[in-house]
Amino acid sequence: MARFTREYGLHLLVVEGKGHFPIDMLRVEMASPDTEGDSAAIQDVGVYRRVVLQQFVTHAKQVPYAERWDAFGWNVVWSGSREKYSAWRESQTRKSYDRRGV
Q1: What is the DSSP code string of 52-95?
Q2: Whole-prediction pTM value?
Q3: Domain residue spans in the chain?
Q4: How far apart are CA 72 and CA 62, in angstroms?
Q5: How much is the mean pLDDT over the chain?
């Protein structure tokens, strides 16, 4: 299971998957969709998609329930502060360009 360094407060949790989104995981993770686009992605059943969630972290040892997400066919791909999210997202964009040979 992946471990994430956590600080208290509002974090972002990025999950990817296909099929029905496990709505109960919002309660388990104390999370909600980050944007209207993420809310729409939760409802879009037919395609593989990435959903960004806002999560309130209450203690340093709180980590995403990666195994439970996996059980629903979804993967936790990133977790951390909003400030660090921009850098992570940029690195993902660069990786996708690198894979295409651009």
Answers
A1: EEEEEE-STT----HHHHHHTTEEEEEEE-HHHHHHHHHHHHHH
A2: 0.81
A3: 9-100
A4: 20
A5: 86
